[in-house]
Every structure is written in structure tokens, then in C-alpha cells.
Amino acid sequence: MAQTEKKGGLLRKSSASKKPLKEKVVLMYDEIFTVRKDPSKCNPRFWEELFLMKVNLEYLEGKLEALDGEELMKIKDNINCLFQHCIQALGEEHPIRVVNALQTLCALIRGVHQKNKSTSGFDIINMLVGFDKAELCMKNLMESLDSLLCAEGSESLKSLCLKLLLCLVTVTDNISQNTILEYVMINSIFEAILQILSSPLSRREHGYDAVVLLALLVNYRKYESVNPYIVKLSIVDDEATLNGMGLVIAQALSEYNRQYKDKEEEHQTGFFSALTNMVGSMFIADVDEKISVQTNEAILLALYEAVHLNRNFITVLAQSHPEMGLMTTPTSPVPTTPVTPLGTTPPSSDVISSAELPLDADVQTSNLLITFLKYSSIVMQDTKDEHRLHSGKLCLIILTCIAEDQYANAFLHDDNMNFRVNLHRMPMRHRKKAADKNLPCRPLVCAVLDLVVEFIVTHMMKEFPMDLYVRCIQIVHKLLCYQKKCRVRLHYTWRELWSALINLLKFLMSNETVLLAKHNIFTLALMVVNLFNMFITYGDTFLPTPSSYDELYYEIIRMHQNFDNLYSMVLRLSTNAGQWKEPASKVTHALVNIRAIINHFNPKIESYAAVNHISQLSEDQVLEVVRSNYDTLTLKLQDGLDQYERYSEQHKEAAFFKELVRSISINVRKNLAFNTLSQELLLKEFSTIS
């Protein structure tokens, strides 16, 4: 017997003498697309039979693609009819029909939206459902999806419902131009999403898609109208739901961190590592550049919206759980899917069960904030890549929101909540890689400061990321304001921060001409100088010991040449009538106390050296001079050092978020197009119809 092969909806015998045979479902599609009347007029069981047959997505979308706008308008009634029958089929008892209806809806929505990219100019809602029936049809569709998501039934059906909703949301690059979403706003599925996140089983299966869907829905026309998803997300206070959302986000970020660590270890043990050892460290940066895992902006956006909109979510950041990067493999079989970038696909599991304990006895508990800080330390290493730049910026915006929150600051600075946070550090020739085991357990704010210091030290380059530097300094300033206000004496290696800040000023001066062509470097310089003013004016209220305050003066005196050079530069520009006169003048005024310290102590140190016949003083000798000459030092009181402007998304970040959401929408859609609409698993689950 001749073998039969299936291709593009055709059943073809290997013998070339016979005409190819089409699948029945393909013939039925042809009838819908060619006949100008309801196909059920000729066959009363047409729609019933259609939804019993496996959907041929490729053929259905291809058929829509092949028609031009005019041809599509001619069969609009049939497309409306198909769309309406799909919605009716969602209420059927037989899951096979529901599955096929959901698949068909995906193909129709994608196909019709694809046609709208041309110049045909037809209205998508009219083409899919017809204006006269749109409100009722979309209400029925959303109610059916809501029922399927909330029901006790098949997890596969719930998964497909979420895929359909993601398809619906992301068919346009700019989701705010997707008019169908008005019906998703009116007929909310918010409670269904929360139910998924609060249930351990549903969360494990669907948590990732639910969180990404919620993040996208929150961003629909968020600046132009009242978005009900924003309003509802801001008032959620159910602990199980918020913790569930946190676990989904933590698992996705942990998966990214694990993938990066695996790749890093491959490089260290592989050929490149051997080569580097042979020829020295000259290639270390090139080797590291190849360690690349695609960033996950979708899940990061979800974290941002939760932190920014819901104050109750702040508690979730500190919720302890076992280290997520080291968990036992789930015992239940996981369906295999094609490998796709992490930025568009969910991790293999979303929650921690009681069986998922750390494999290593030394592994400590972790929390969402630690996982996020580790993620940030990876993506912020390389800001030359656009996606990483966006991810890095979003990480710093999230940290800005956290640094402004009173409760977040309380647990960040809590001495009873000490963690060992292993941040990733960029390989640099002049420093050795820190051993993980040597890391001390400290309050979480120390890890935030470490992250900022690491960024400051490692990104002084030609393509200077000014915006990210400004955000880093703002985060440090907000943390210091809390410490000053609450008199928190943090045991931190402040010298590392002071040194990084002074080196940053040195970099700005060395590259004045190049940087001024692109940036107002005086804004950043003023912020850095005012951080020092904050330490000088209020340091005695929050530095851990009196000797820490002495060390601050020592660093200023030791590096006085940098401050002298900065003063000369800003004085030169402030006395000219150029564009930088005013911003440079502000820095000149801000330097008054730093210059007073230098001018007061330097003569004393020189005098001490002369009297004692010492050519070069040790640190202890300089500190002795400093301590004995505080009384005669006069400083000016500077106002507003402990004040800051609170973060505002709408006024300053709207353009960034519009572009970010656009990028995420394209990514999610691309992923849906390739692997998440496969029917094989669904049809196996529903292989019998009772």
C-alpha cells in the first residue's frame, strides 16, 4: 500500500498519478472562505463537526494571509459567524470542542490583525465580530475564559485560555492601540489571574503566563484613562496571592541567574579558561562578553508594577524561602517544548514545594530581593546591549521605588535579617575575583550599596551611561536620608563608596570635552559632591563609629587634588558666559565645605610633618591630626541635603515604559507563534469524548 504523507492540509499519496486529497477540516475552511453564505445552510451539522476536528493552524492563518483586504471584506459575515460559533463552543461540555474553538480563535485574531498591517484600513473588531454584536460577543468570550480559568477542570485548557489572552493582548506592537482590549478592561479577568497565583497547583502550571499577562494589561493606556487592572492591583492585600506572585517572579529570575552561572562555569572550565591561563589575563574581558543569557524584561516589568503600585507587595520582597537556584528536579514529567529565549518563555517550575529543598547543606534561605539583586548584578554588567541597558535601567527604577519606601527600608536595614548575597562582579584585570565563601552576612542594604558601587566602578567608559549613574547616586542618597532620619548606624565599608565616588569625579574631569558634547556632567558632579556634603553634615548621626567619620575626612584630604581640580574646572566654566555657567556655579557653591576641610587640615598636616621631621605621614598620623583639629574647623550649614524628589513614572518615564512594553509585546507574540499553541498534548489529554 502506498504511504500517505500530510503537508499543508493535503493528504498526498506517494504515487504521482493521483490527485492530492485535502483533509476534511481544510475543505471546511475553504468553504468558509469561498462561499458567501453561512456554510451550515447546506450542512446543518457544519459547526458541530468543525470543532470536533483538529485545527490546522498553519492552513487557517495562511488562508487569511493569502486574501487581500477587499476579498476579506466579502467574507466578513462568514468570519463573524466562525468567531461567534467559536465563542459558543467554549461553553460545550466536550473539551475537544473547547480546545479547537480556542485554537481557532487564536488563528483568527492573529490572522485578521496581520491583515490590518497592510493599507486595507478595515476595522478589526468589525471584521472579527461585527459592530452590532461586538459588545455581547466579547462579553460572552471573556466570561467563558473567566469560567474556564476559575474552574476545577483541565490545566491544559487553562493554559490555552491564557495563551489566547496573551495572543489577544500582543497582536499589536503597541498594546495601547489594540482596541479589542477595551472589552478586556470592561469584562475583567483580574480575579481569575489572582486565583491562579494564589493556588499552588495553578501557579506551578500557569503562574508565569498569568504574571506576564497581568503586567501587560496594567500597561494598556495607563496614562490616558483609568485602567481597572491598575486600580485593582494597587489594593490587593491577600497574602497568599501576593506571595504567589512573588514566587513566580523569583523563580523566573532565579532561572536566569542559574543559566548565567552555568555558562560562567562552562567558560571557567573550558578552552577559553585554559587559553587565558596560558597567555595571561589580557583576554579576560573578551571571554566574558560571550557569557550571554537573554534578559527577561517581561517578568521584570511585573516586579516593577507590583512594587510600584502595591505597597503590600513590599513585604513579599523579604519573604524567606530556600535558595531557588538549587532545587531538586520535579518528580512529575515536564512536557518538552522547543528551546526559546528566556525572555519570552516561562521557567520549568514556578513555586517551591516542601520537597524542593536546597541540595547543599551550606545553602542559606533567600528571598525575592536577593534574587533580584543577583539578577541586577548580571544584567548591569554590560550596558552596551540595548536589552541589557533597558533591563539595567528598570532594575535601578525598581531599586529607586524600594529605597523610597519606609517599610522596605526598615527590613533593608534590619540587623536581625542578615544575608550572604553573592553578587556577580565584572572581571577586571586589576582585581581578583572575590571568593563566595568569604562573603559576610550583613543587612540587605549592604548588598544594594555593593551593587551601586560595583556599577560606578565598572562603567566609566566612552559610551558613558549617564542616566544609570544618576539613578545609582539617587538610590544611595535616598538610603542615606533614611539612615539620617532614623539614626541607623550601618556597619558598611563606606570607604569603598567614597573611593568610587571620587574616582567618578576624576573620570568626569578627565573626559570633560567628550562628555560635555553629550551630557550635562555637572548634574552628576553636583549629586556626588552633595553625597559627600551629606556625610560631612550628618555623618555623625548615621556612620557606625566616630573613627568612620575621621576616615571620611582622611579620604577627602588624601584625594584633595581631585576636589581641587574639580573646583578649578567648575570655576572656569562658571565665570564664562557659556551654556554651562549656571550648572557649574551650583557645583562651585556645593564644594564650599569640602574646600574648607582641605584648606583647614592640609596646613596642619604639613606643620605636623615639619615639626616631627616626617617626609610622609602614615594614615594613623593623619587621623591624629584630624582628631585634634576638629574644634577650629568652621563649616557652613547647607539646606536640603536630606530632601529628594520622589519617583514619578508618568512625568519622567512614560516614553521608556511605552518602548519597553512594545518590546515585550513583540517578544511574547513571537514566542506564541512558534511553540505554545501546539495541540499534541491537549489532544492526548482529551483523546476520548464521552
Automatic annotation (TrEMBL):
Principal subcellular localization: membrane
Entry-linked InterPro entries: ARM-type_fold (IPR016024), ARMD3-like (IPR039868), ARMH3_C (IPR013636)
Ranges annotated as spanning the membrane: none
One matching Pfam family: ARMH3_C
Source taxon at top rank: Eukaryota
Gene Ontology CC terms, in alphabetical order: cytosol; membrane
All copies of domain Armadillo-like helical, residue ranges: 436-672
Compartments it resides in: Membrane
Keyword set, alphabetical order: Membrane, Transmembrane, Transmembrane helix
Alphabetical list of PANTHER family matching this protein: ARMADILLO-LIKE HELICAL DOMAIN-CONTAINING PROTEIN 3
Name of the protein described by the UniProt record: ARMD3 protein
